[in-house]
Design goal:
Distance between the termini: 40 Å
Helix content: under 10%
Largest sheet: 7 strands, mixed
Number of helices: 0
Oligomer: single chain
Structural class: mainly beta
Length: 127
Amino acid sequence: QVQLVESGGGLVQAGGSLRLSCAASGRTFSANAMGWFRQAPGKEREFVAATSWSGGATYYSYYSDSVKSRFTISRDVAKNTVFLQMNSLKPEDTAVYYCAASRGAVGTMRRGNYDYWGQGTQVTVSS
């Protein structure tokens, strides 16, 4: 049974940083896409960042325009874990953040591209 467990959320002041972690179990995702989405109250779940596998030990990352240059996605293949480093946080980053994993190698911005989801971790940025 595949499980994705997020951690690292919390309350932070604007301009601060948080690092989210997502530990996967039940199967390895070294050759699969993994991503982060978020959902603010009253809004749809939206894409944040993804890391896709392009062969060997090579991965590439991409981001939504709203977080580009502030957030960084990375993974520890040996630990089957993906991270989201969030810097220069803004109140509009407040949301529940979800980890997602795909059976495929390439992730996209579409939720339907991902097969497994975590339960989410709350991030609150105060002004």
